[in-house]
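User: I'll paste a sequence; please echo it back and then give the predicted structure.

Assistant: Echoing your sequence first, then the prediction.
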Amino acid sequence: MTQSGSVSEFNSRLYDILDRVEYRRIVSAEDMEDVARLREKSFTAANLLPFLKEGLIDDLDFDPHAYVFGIYYDERLVSTVRIHHVTPAHRVSTCGKAFPEILDPMLDAGMTMIDPARLAADPEFLAEIPAIPYLTLRIATMATDYFEAHKCFAFVKVQHAAFYRRVFRAHQVVPPQPNWNSYNVDAVLMAVDVPAVLPKLYVRYPFFRSQPFERRMMFASPEELGTMPLTIRPTARYHPSA
């Protein structure tokens, strides 16, 4: 089979998986407790024990520019991610806290950024459906589109860097950090140049696409929405390019 045929088959499978997915912006205490339990399960399996010591829920979860999401597959919470919208006027984020010397000059130049953090997946579901990182990081893609960000960062395990290079054309910003912050993991900071990469990403992996109303339901303020949606269904299949 040709490479293009393999990519086409992969896209088709992802569309089928997305048909069974719902996104939920986490705002209630009950849902946040579910996210905390999922983070504990995921971080324990990955041996990221310092995360457990710091607290599964932290102050950044409640920052006004932070958006915590749960990804539900057949109504089962299978993964979660926290999205930070970083601007020159609001610089709070996980990467910003760890690498201010990298982000601050870009922000001083007027750039805006998306910083996905606290990505956690149910290890059992990940073994069953390995495509879960695509389902989860699709939210970060929507955020870069909705907020018209210049950069998207990823502070990830060194062994995951190849995935981000291959899928998102991410490039290394700082050298790998051995045993970073005593987290028992070698990590690397990567960045995506959104304006250059996003159009090509949509062509190669069209399941990352979304309709404007989906992005609005994901990221608009409660005041703008009026009523917060309970769940949000992916719209990639209904995009004109699908």
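The chain has a mean pLDDT of 91. The CA atoms of residues 72 and 183 lie 28 Å apart.
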